[in-house]
Amino acid sequence: MTSILRSPQALQLTLALIKPDAVAHPLILEAVHQQILSNKFLIVRTRELQWKLEDCRRFYREHEVGQSEPISLPTKMPSNFGGH
């Protein structure tokens, strides 16, 4: 039997970003992880980041190309986002 991890054609990577509100509560974070696993995704790596507003803008800039209005995701973050 061939493992899915040994078949490069079958492996796709998906990035999941979890909002700071969820990360702040261990039970909610655990529920998010369980939901990811129950949908047959594997968590291969985790990393906790604290972005500044400019980091967030740079990350979402690629989604603004061809949009009639710029995406306002950075302005919808909690007020303490990037304040550290």
UniProtKB/TrEMBL annotation:
InterPro entries according to UniProt: NDK-like_dom, NDK-like_dom_sf, NDPk6
Entry superkingdom: Eukaryota
Span of domain Nucleoside diphosphate kinase-like: 13-64
Gene Ontology molecular functions: ATP binding; metal ion binding; nucleoside diphosphate kinase activity
Position of the signal peptide: none
Family label: Belongs to the NDK family.
Name used for this protein in its record: NME/NM23 nucleoside diphosphate kinase 6
Highest classification ranks of the organism: Eukaryota, Metazoa, Chordata, Craniata, Vertebrata
